[in-house]
Q: What sequence folds into this?
């Protein structure tokens, strides 16, 4: 076990027996992920319009005894984007903008090559501007816009998807121009307030009364409060694309406000997700749930925090995950497992963690006869006497495989790839000798074409 915290449970609604059974499965799975993978954060699972289980594991900081609960404040990173998109759609309903307006309507300095880009293109990441156009002035929008649009679109706007954060910074300024209010004020007044999201705010804001801000662990084990700016200020380097700070209670209120058409019309709501599964709509990534119906959500990652907000209209349900350890491998595993539980499916297998001593034994770099490198790196959170999952990278010469090492069902060390569907078993890695620092690491591919790596360095 990486950390030992007593369970914290917050049942928000009185539920019938079948929902109580579902709640028991959710809590048992959360406990497993907390104990085996060190999950620190909060989750909410809802079905049939009711919260089934909501609560947290761990404390609001590494130095605190205050437990995480459904009121603890997390930054939700790119899960801010659906909120920004909602603000745009709301202004469209009010007749203050049109989704098909060219951005040049709002700004004089748009270069000729970018004049075909519309608001809809920005919201759906189809502007044609490369995702690498990220540098811009944090406070001077004219300078920021010039840098964001530098070089113009690579592709005709509207023809190809490419995720571009800074498009949402431009949207934040369009919202400000169309509404006559700063972006954050408009979101407070048009989204947070009507939805009843009393605790929600943005990075840099004062902590709401009686609320506790979570301190996350960024890569490199640096602490960061959810209310601290991850990039120095809430300027155009982050505004609109991230920076919303909220908790499970408020996210649930947002979900219900959307379900009950309190923020935008049903027609506009459906328009936001009117794309095929696997595509991005207006602020939402649209997927397919286990019944074959559409689901929609968004995930986010920023210094110290991971977040996922996914809605499942086919069961009038949702799964929200807020985590405050950016080093964690638990996030995608928990997401996949909770979805399975919600739809009555078996949860994915969770491998056993490796002891600190075993990680240190394997830690190092190995090369095959073609000089391709396999590197085992300690989990930065590992402590003497604890267990966790070391990271593994294989550089095949331009293409790399990333994953973790864990113990499989037959007590063999195996490579697990981390993805949206949780962990994928990619086969045995046989370290020899088995009782001392290994000299070789053999990747068993299952087709007889094993790859042998010789140890060249101990870290």
A:
């Amino acid at each position: 076990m990486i950390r030992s915290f007593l369970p914290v449970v917050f049942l928000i609604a009185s539920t019938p027996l079948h929902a109580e059974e579902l709640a028991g499965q959710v809590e048992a799975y959360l406990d497993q992920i907390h104990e085996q993978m060190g999950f620190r954060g909060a989750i909410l699972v809802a079905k049939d319009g009711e919260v089934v289980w909501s609560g947290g594991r761990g404390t609001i900081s590494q130095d605190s005894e205050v437990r995480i609960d459904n009121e603890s404040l997390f930054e939700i990173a790119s899960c801010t984007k659906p909120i920004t998109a909602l603000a745009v759609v709301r202004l469209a309903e009010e007749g203050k903008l049109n989704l098909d307006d060219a951005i040049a309507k709002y700004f004089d300095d748009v270069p000729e090559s970018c004049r075909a880009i519309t608001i809809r293109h920005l919201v759906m990441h189809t502007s044609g501007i490369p995702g690498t156009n990220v540098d811009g002035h944090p406070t001077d929008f004219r300078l920021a816009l010039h840098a964001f649009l530098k070089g113009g679109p690579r592709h005709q706007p509207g023809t190809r998807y490419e995720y571009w954060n800074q498009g949402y910074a431009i949207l934040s300024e369009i919202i400000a121009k169309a509404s006559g209010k700063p972006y954050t004020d408009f979101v407070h007044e048009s989204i947070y307030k009507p939805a009843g999201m009393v605790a929600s705010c943005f990075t840099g804001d004062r902590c709401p009364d009686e609320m506790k801000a979570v301190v996350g662990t960024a890569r490199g084990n640096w602490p960061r409060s959810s209310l601290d700016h991850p990039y120095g200020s809430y300027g155009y380097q982050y505004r609109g694309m991230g920076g919303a700070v909220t908790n499970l209670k408020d996210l649930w209120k947002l979900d219900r406000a959307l379900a009950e058409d309190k923020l935008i019309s049903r027609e506009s709501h459906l328009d936001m997700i009117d794309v095929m599964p696997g595509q991005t709509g207006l602020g939402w990534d649209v997927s397919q749930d286990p019944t074959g119906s559409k689901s929609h959500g968004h995930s986010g990652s920023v210094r110290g925090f991971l977040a996922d907000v996914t809605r499942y209209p086919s069961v009038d349900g949702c799964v929200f995950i807020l985590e405050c350890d950016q080093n964690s491998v638990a996030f995608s595993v928990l997401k996949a497992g909770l979805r399975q539980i919600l739809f009555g499916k078996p949860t994915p297998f969770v491998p056993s963690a490796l002891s600190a001593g075993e990680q240190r034994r394997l830690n190092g770099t190995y090369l095959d006869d073609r000089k391709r490198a396999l590197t085992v790196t300690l989990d930065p959170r590992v402590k003497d006497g604890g267990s966790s999952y070391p990271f593994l990278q294989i550089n095949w010469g331009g293409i790399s495989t990333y994953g973790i090492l864990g113990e499989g069902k037959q007590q063999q060390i195996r490579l697990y790839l981390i993805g949206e569907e949780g962990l994928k078993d990619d086969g045995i890695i046989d370290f020899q000798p088995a009782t001392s620092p290994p000299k070789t690491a053999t990747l068993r591919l299952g087709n007889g074409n094993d790859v042998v790596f010789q140890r060249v360095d101990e870290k």
Summary: The first helix runs from residue 17 to 37.
